[in-house]
UniProtKB/TrEMBL annotation:
Residues 328-344 have a biased composition (Acidic residues). One of its GO terms (molecular function) is RNA polymerase II cis-regulatory region sequence-specific DNA binding. SUPFAM superfamilies: Homeodomain-like (SSF46689). CDD domains: homeodomain. It comes from Bugula neritina. InterPro entries: HD, Homeodomain-like_sf, SATB1/SATB2, SATB_ULD_sf, ULD. SMART domains: HOX. The keyword Acetylation does not apply. This is Uncharacterized protein.
Length: 568
DNA sequence: CCCTGATTGCTTACACGTGA
DNA sequence: TCACGTGTAAGCAATCAGGG
């Protein structure tokens, strides 16, 4: 990649991404850091690597001040960016030494303080959309005089006001819930599509509701590879049929991805269950269903009450019950667990594959499960379906003519009320005739396996004590110095990017507390955010619409301070 | 018993390679 | 160039499990 320059000194093109960011936001990481498009800077190959940021910025026309205050990271491909200082300890290493062979795949990510133009641009844009009074009513931190001064180029924001401005801007303009939110592009806000690579935003994930999944399933069975035109038709139909909140609409890519993933799932299914794995009879069943379009997202299994085993007249007959899956938030209250009798076929004495749900277990059945598990358990396989499948037959019997495994089928399939009566009646009839065969196979297989296992399991149970199983280590996060910080970050950004997580992690690890205790890893931070999201969501659901912003730390943080410290 | 960090399984999104 | 397959990252719900 190097080109000759002046005979001896070569030059190297460096791909750069420059982000404008306030220094003091290092502890208030903004989700809306303005990212400039990628650019290239040609720098002499003998430039000292430690000076590369400065050199690049000067080449790109930034001021010396900006160049000196900037910070840089090197990113190879899409891997985690590394701080320049951590890449090389050799002060004399040149750009050629460090990036000579990596120029094609390395990106220099540079963070600089925003130019005053940035504030001015933002102000002008906001004032175009609403009068100053409207901003002021939302607690806009800058006085009218100063705003006028900035807009006319006669004034600059102090460091303090700059910080307040960006905090306000992030809260009211950048945040998705921002009351004065920018008119984002239709593709960004009105659709459910993920964000482009390299963006700081976390990807948005669509959950198809049951009705949508049912339709997609239906269409998939008609044609697993519909044309774009057809998918556009599906899209229009779905968006019309199931309007989402906030004008949120599905995008064609969502449909495309769904079909793509569905096809992939079909292939996976075909591969995972070979005829060799099956007994003769089981193989027969599989062959019969081989011509049936399999469940697209075969992993999305909804456990329903067994219509044969669990004839509970008190329950809504045929009402599907979910234990997990694509249930959306609004569906959460409707989620029921499998009840005692009805879960008979779903218990752990039957193959996991029967339900496809590895964790289906109710409190009522827990003791029985434990007893049974103690008979057939292998160490460190307590919740591994793969391990279970070593001991129970991978039957996954399905009813000919239906793409669902016995004991489980997509709840979505029942969402269409028109389908419910005819489908369920027919399904129930076929299920009854299949049930006897299936049940016999299962009992047989389980008995055989138990017999085979008896000696081994006893032996193994003795050999491997509980202590030898992998022990979980629990990270300890200081409720005094660290939790408040995390909460502050959470309030700002509930889905921080990897980069932000790294920053948070670094920041916490620099704290005094971490000098005495083991460092946190980004994984710990990621988990904290994940669990905190779940917690806030729980509180919202349970507390009938509590807004996180309305909660203070004491309400969110209910756990007593931990004293013991045990790290991963 | 409760809180919360950690784990698991599933679903959707995306990157990349390959072949027509 | 495009469509497609494959692998995997990322996110979520449910659950487990350590520790006060």
């Amino acid at each position: 990649m190097s080109t000759s320059l002046n005979g001896d000194v070569k030059s190297i093109p460096i791909r750069c991404v420059i982000e404008e960011k306030l220094d003091h936001q290092s502890c208030l990481v903004s989700s809306g850091v303005p990212v400039k498009p990628e650019s290239f800077a040609i720098v002499p190959s003998n430039t000292l690597f430690k000076d590369v940021v400065k050199t690049v910025l000067l080449k790109l026309g930034y001021s010396t001040n900006e160049a000196l205050s900037a910070k840089g990271e090197v990113q190879i491909k899409k891997w985690k960016p590394l701080d320049l200082n951590s890449v090389s300890e050799n002060e004399q290493a040149s750009v050629e030494d460090m990036l000579g062979d990596l120029a094609n795949i390395a990106t220099l990510r540079i963070k600089i303080r925003p130019r005053s133009d940035d504030v001015k641009d933002k102000l002008l844009l906001m004032l175009l959309r609403q009068p100053y009074d409207a901003l002021a009513s939302k607690g806009f931190p800058i006085s009218k005089d100063i705003v006028e001064g900035i807009v006319t180029g006669q004034d600059n924001l102090s460091e303090k006001l700059l910080k307040e401005f960006y905090l306000w801007y992030d809260k009211h303009i950048n945040s998705p819930e921002g009351d004065l939110g920018e008119q984002r592009s239709a593709s960004a806000s009105k659709t459910a599509v993920g964000v482009s690579a390299g963006s700081n935003k976390s990807r948005l994930r669509v959950s198809f509701n049951h009705a949508e999944a049912a339709k997609l399933q239906e269409w998939f069975e008609i044609d697993a590879q519909p044309s774009k035109q057809t998918m556009n038709r599906y899209l229009a139909e779905l968006n019309e049929a199931s309007p989402r909140g906030n004008g949120f609409k599905l995008d064609l890519t969502n449909i495309m991805y769904w079909f793509k993933n569905a096809r992939a799932a079909v292939r996976r299914n075909g591969r995972s269950t070979t005829s060799e794995d099956l007994s003769e009879d089981e193989g027969h069943i599989e062959k019969e269903i081989a011509t049936v379009p399999p469940l697209p997202n075969s992993n999305a299994v909804y456990v329903i009450k067994n219509p044969i085993v669990g004839e509970d007249s008190d329950e809504k007959k045929g009402e599907p019950q979910t234990t997990r899956g694509v249930a959306e938030e609004s569906d959460m209250e409707e989620e029921l667990s499998v009840t005692d009798d009805e879960s008979e076929m779903n218990d752990k004495d039957t193959p996991n594959e029967l339900t496809g749900s590895s964790d289906v277990k109710t409190d009522n059945k827990k003791d029985e499960d434990d007893q049974l598990e103690s008979q057939i358990r292998v160490p460190s396989a307590t919740s591994s379906p793969q391990m279970h499948s070593n001991f129970v037959p991978n039957v996954a019997p399905r009813i000919p003519g239906y793409p669902f495994t016995y004991g489980a089928f997509p709840m979505a399939y029942l969402q269409s009320t028109a389908m419910q009566n005819s489908f369920y009646k027919e399904w129930n009839e076929k299920m009854q005739s299949a049930a006897a065969v299936v049940q016999a196979q299962q009992v047989n297989s389980v008995q055989q396996n138990l017999a085979l296992l008896k000696a081994d399991s006893l032996k193994v149970d003795c050999e491997l004590s509980k202590a030898e199983r992998q022990k979980r280590h629990r990270a300890f996060i200081d409720p005094v110095s660290e939790i408040p910080k995390l909460e502050q970050w959470f309030e700002k950004e509930t889905h921080p990017s990897h980069y932000v997580i790294e920053q948070i992690c670094d920041d916490l690890n620099r704290g005094e507390f971490r000098s005495r205790y083991p460092k946190l890893s980004p994984k710990n931070i990621q988990l904290w955010f994940k669990n905190h999201r779940a917690k806030v969501k729980r509180m919202r659901v349970g507390g009938s619409g509590i807004n996180y912003n309305d909660l203070d730390s004491s309400q969110i943080k209910m756990s007593p301070p931990h004293l013991a410290v045990q790290m991963m």
